[in-house]
């Protein structure tokens, strides 16, 4: 392993996202300037043309995701990056990517909202928007790194998941993670697992572009490769043509949901800290998980049996793991930089097996370890 | 050295504090082989406005990336000094730019005053290197990073045509801090 | 009777959803004949549409086709063209689709001069949603949302496209089919952003509300209101008011966006992989 050329660099979260994207094979980026994600666009503008990739600064956020979807259909792995206001605008075509099953990655460096909100300050206010922001029944994959190293590895994962499951994947950063600089060990290209979309194995005349394989995912022919077919945002049959047949509609909607829900074991990633004997669990993600990790150490110094479940996959939500944890511990505290979004899922998944409380902060500052410890002590006293 | 050192570099936008934080973190993390995290807080203005850059350095992996109590606080403006001194550890070190900070807070911490901006202008002909002189001072006072690592990081991060003046700035800062130290000891 | 058209359509999709007498079918025929004349490889043609009656056109043709979201066809097409500059990318839009919700995308696609052909079927109304007025509905005409007559000033797409930076701009009608086919052919062949606005009829929505109850009434109106470029110059401002000038308005050569970007790539590769 040591022979592989690995560079250690001090990288910003946004820079690590660029590196990860390129390592995973992303060769197209379209975006629109927005704080705190602009460094991703800047990095892509500089690096992509050096390696045969393309960058376009589009006229708005909607056009950016549209161009990304278009480039993906023409065979380029594609990514766009934005923050809250832009993420709101992207919801329209996010839905299009979901229904037409086009792989792409949308990075959302979360800042305080609603609306223009707090452009330069962190937040985790878009957890639910990532899940339900676009209209209609759908499943989604959303990942949330908490270190700069994880930004790199989860960007690669995000691109891989999008290709494997033919679905848009959301990478949820927050302003702290996006702008934070840390040491990153950049893997050599040959040690990065890269997953590419499955191509059809049948000749064009036998190709049904939306007929699932045994895993529920249709092989995808890129435009220009000899397979002529139709892609539409209308509910469609296996040929890709609009349908109003109730059976076809039902099986289509269920399939695009199930292809994610039935693969949660592959998609869900989390890390456990000191949970083996824990009586109190913290569940956190993103930069807040860094605070929670410290809280666990501080609490343990005081003899409190506190552990942390750090979520790296937010959607699909790791309900099973949370349920198991709820059966083990007396109390789960969910610190979040919002007024309590993920805690709703934790409550649902816990099914009354333990007490679940929220700890919120929405003043644009990162939650610190001391205040989470204070919350633990306050709950113990009750 | 303590397990975890928390450094807060504060002042106004345009004083190069974010770059200073990056250089310090890169010196510690890449060239000294420790763990380091740099974060920042800034307003919407590209110039002016409050700006702070935070660096945490540790021999172990770093969990919480931000400063809880600064061990070292650099204040290049009065506003920043008044604001961030509240988070200064009681056995911490406060370095103020006395050409900008006129009211020195009364805190139990050790306080060092240098007219950094003035020195930059008078000795090197540009205020632009105030940030690098400050890094030299911090290193001279605390040895939080090695001078060798800091030099490499400065070289890596400043534009090539500004390398010379920045190296001078770094040494200048280091020397005035050392002189101060010697005075203290004698 | 099989014609050249049959070679380019997805027959299983017919009959189409368009109303009897709708101009969309005439446009479909004109596009197909133009492409057939050019002998393009069907595998290398991408036809992209937005949302509206006209946008259903992509379902009917046997190319690489995509029916996207309302107004967004051009940015989707931009992504395809950037990723694969060898594809011929044709974008078909309606008047509301292109000039209202997609207005900004239209301006910027023209500004970039990216090698796409934009065909706008202008029936001066939102047909699919039942006859609301659009940015191309003439002043004083009626729509379901302009029951007292439209007070908006309409866009002149030809002027808009020229000002924004297109390379080729023309206007035809569904009445003048031979001319239309040749305008489309020229547009398709043009390197850079090319635009053909097509005055079309919507007898069901537009016609009904504007005293043209039959298809014949509507086509006759289009014929009477269309004026050639030469005749246009002799008209007084008063005479011009309800009429539209047809023909070719711009045909210039200017580097297209994908060419310019390939130069960026050359430059970037010369500079090498920096940190």
The geometry of chain C reads as globular
User: What's the shape of chain B?
Assistant: globular
Total beta-strand segments of chain C: 8
CATH fold category name of chain B: Pyruvate-ferredoxin Oxidoreductase, domain 3
Helix-strand topology string of chain B: EHEEEHEEHHHH
Share in helix of chain B: 40-55%
**Major β-sheet strand ordering of chain C:** 2-1-3-4-6-5-8-7
CATH superfamily of chain C: Thiamin diphosphate (ThDP)-binding fold, Pyr/PP domains
Give the terminus-to-terminus CA distance of chain B: 24 Å
- The amount of beta strand of chain C, in percent, is 15-25%
Number of domains of chain B: 1
CATH homologous superfamily label of chain B: Pyruvate-ferredoxin oxidoreductase, PFOR, domain III
Tell me the name of the CATH class of chain C.
Answer: Alpha Beta
Helix count of chain C, per DSSP?
12
Unreliable segments of chain C (pLDDT under 50, ≥5 consecutive)? none
The assigned structural class of chain B equals alpha/beta
Mean pLDDT of chain C: 96
Specify the CATH architecture of chain C: 3-Layer(aba) Sandwich
Determine the mean pLDDT of chain B.
Answer: 94
Strand content of chain B: 25-35%
Give the CA-CA distance, first to last residue of chain C.
64 Å
Can you describe what's shown?
The complex is a heterotrimer of chains A (382), B (186) and C (275). With 382 residues, chain A is of the alpha/beta class. Chain A has 13 helices and 16 strands. In chain A, 39% of the residues lie in helices and 22% in strands. In chain A, the strands form 3 sheets. In chain A, strands 2, 3, 4, 5, 6, 7, 8 and 14 form an 8-stranded mixed sheet that branches. In chain A, strands 11-13-12-15-16 form a 5-stranded mixed sheet, with helices on both faces. Chain A starts with 6 loop residues before the first strand and ends with a helix. The model of chain A has no long low-confidence stretch (mean pLDDT 97). Chain B is of the alpha/beta class. Chain B has a single domain, classed as Pyruvate-ferredoxin oxidoreductase, PFOR, domain III (Pyruvate-ferredoxin Oxidoreductase, domain 3). Chain C has helices at 24-38, 57-60, 73-83, 95-101, 103-112, 157-164, 177-189, 203-209, 215-225, 229-233, 237-240, 257-271, and strands at residues 45-49, 64-67, 88-94, 117-122, 168-173, 194-199, 226-228, 244-251. With 275 residues, chain C is an alpha/beta fold. Chain C is globular and about 65 Å long. The chains are: A alpha/beta (382), B alpha/beta (186), C alpha/beta (275). Chains A and C meet through helix 3, helix 4 and strand 10 of A and strand 2, helix 3, helix 5 and helix 12 of C. Strand 9 of chain A pairs antiparallel with strand 2 of chain B, so a sheet runs across the interface.
């Amino acid at each position: 392993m040591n022979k592989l050329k690995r560079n250690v660099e001090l990288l910003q979260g946004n820079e690590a996202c660029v590196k990860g994207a390129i390592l995973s094979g992303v060769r197209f980026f379209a975006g629109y300037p927005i704080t705190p994600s602009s460094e991703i666009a800047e990095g892509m503008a500089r690096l992509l043309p050096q390696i045969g990739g393309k960058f376009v600064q589009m006229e708005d956020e909607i056009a950016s995701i549209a161009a990304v979807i278009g480039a993906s259909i023409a065979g380029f792995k594609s990514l766009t990056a934005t923050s809250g206001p832009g993420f709101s605008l992207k919801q329209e075509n996010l839905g299009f990517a979901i229904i037409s099953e086009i792989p792409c990655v949308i990075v959302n460096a979360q800042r305080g909202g609603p609306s223009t909100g707090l452009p330069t300050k962190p937040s985790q206010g878009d957890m639910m928007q990532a899940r339900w922001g676009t209209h209609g029944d759908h499943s989604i994959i959303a990942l949330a790194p908490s270190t700069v190293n994880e930004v790199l590895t989860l960007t690669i994962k995000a691109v891989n998941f999008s290709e494997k499951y033919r679905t848009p994947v959301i990478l949820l950063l927050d302003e702290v993670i996006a702008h934070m600089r840390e040491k990153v060990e950049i893997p050599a290209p040959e040690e990065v697992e890269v997953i590419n979309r499955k191509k059809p194995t049948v000749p064009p005349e036998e190709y049904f572009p939306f007929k699932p394989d045994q895993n529920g995912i249709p092989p995808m022919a890129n435009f220009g490769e000899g397979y002529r077919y139709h892609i539409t945002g209308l509910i469609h049959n296996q040929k890709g043509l609009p349908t109003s047949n109730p059976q076809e509609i039902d099986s289509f909607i269920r399939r695009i949901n199930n292809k994610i829900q039935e693969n949660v074991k592959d998609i869900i990633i989390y890390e456990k800290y000191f949970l083996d004997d824990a009586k109190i669990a913290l569940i956190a993600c993103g930069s807040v998980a860094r605070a929670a990790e410290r809280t666990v150490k501080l609490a343990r110094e005081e003899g409190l049996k506190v552990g942390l479940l750090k979520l790296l996959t937010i959607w699909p939500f790791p309900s099973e793991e949370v349920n198991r944890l709820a059966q083990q511990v007396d109390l789960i505290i969910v610190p979040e930089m919002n007024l309590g979004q993920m805690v709703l899922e934790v409550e649902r998944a816990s099914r009354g097996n333990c007490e679940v409380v929220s700890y919120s902060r929405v003043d644009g500052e990162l939650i610190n370890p001391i205040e989470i410890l204070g919350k633990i002590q306050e709950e113990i006293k009750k | 050295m303590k397990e975890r050192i928390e450094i807060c570099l504060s002042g106004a936008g345009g004083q190069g504090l974010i770059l200073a934080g990056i250089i310090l973190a890169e010196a510690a993390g890449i060239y000294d082989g420790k763990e380091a995290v740099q974060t920042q807080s800034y307003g919407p203005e590209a110039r002016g406005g409050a700006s702070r850059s935070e660096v945490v350095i540790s021999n172990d992996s770093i969990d919480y990336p931000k400063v809880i109590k600064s061990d070292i606080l650099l204040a290049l403006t009065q506003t920043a000094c008044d604001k961030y001194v509240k988070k200064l550890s009681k056995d911490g070190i406060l370095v103020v730019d006395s050409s900008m900070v006129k009211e020195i807070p009364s805190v139990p911490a050790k306080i060092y005053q240098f007219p950094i901006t003035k020195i930059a202008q008078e000795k090197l002909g540009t205020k632009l290197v105030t940030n690098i002189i400050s890094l030299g001072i911090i290193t001279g006072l605390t040895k939080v990073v090695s001078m060798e690592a800091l030099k490499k990081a400065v070289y890596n991060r400043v534009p090539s045509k500004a390398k010379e003046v920045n190296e001078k700035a770094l040494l200048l800062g280091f020397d005035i801090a050392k002189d101060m130290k010697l005075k203290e000891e004698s | 009777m099989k014609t050249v058209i049959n070679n380019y359509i997805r027959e299983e999709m017919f009959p189409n959803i368009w109303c009897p007498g709708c101009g969309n079918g005439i446009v479909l025929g004109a596009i197909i004949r133009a492409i057939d004349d050019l002998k393009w490889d069907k595998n290398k043609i991408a036809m992209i549409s937005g949302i509206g009656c006209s946008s259903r056109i992509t379902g009917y043709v046997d190319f690489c086709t995509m029916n996207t979201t309302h107004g967004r066809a051009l940015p989707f097409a931009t992504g395809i063209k950037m990723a694969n500059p060898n594809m011929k990318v044709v974008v078909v839009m309606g008047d509301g689709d292109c000039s209202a919700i997609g207005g900004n995308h239209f301006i910027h696609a023209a500004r970039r001069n990216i090698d796409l052909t934009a065909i706008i079927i202008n029936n001066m109304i939102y047909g699919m949603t039942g006859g609301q007025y659009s940015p191309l509905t003439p002043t004083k005409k009626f729509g379901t949302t302009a029951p007292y007559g439209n007070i908006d000033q309409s866009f002149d797409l030809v002027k808009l496209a020229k000002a924004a930076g297109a390379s080729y701009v023309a206007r035809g009608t569904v009445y003048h089919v031979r001319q239309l086919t040749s305008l489309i052919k020229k547009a398709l062949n043009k390197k850079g952003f090319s635009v053909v606005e097509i005055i079309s009829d919507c007898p069901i929505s537009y016609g009904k509300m504007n005293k043209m109850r039959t298809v014949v009434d509507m086509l006759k109106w289009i014929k009477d209101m269309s004026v050639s470029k030469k005749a246009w110059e002799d008209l007084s401002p008063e005479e011009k008011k309800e009429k539209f000038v047809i023909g070719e308005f711009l045909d210039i050569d200017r580097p297209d966006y994908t060419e310019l970007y390939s130069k960026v790539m050359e430059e970037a590769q010369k500079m090498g992989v920096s940190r």
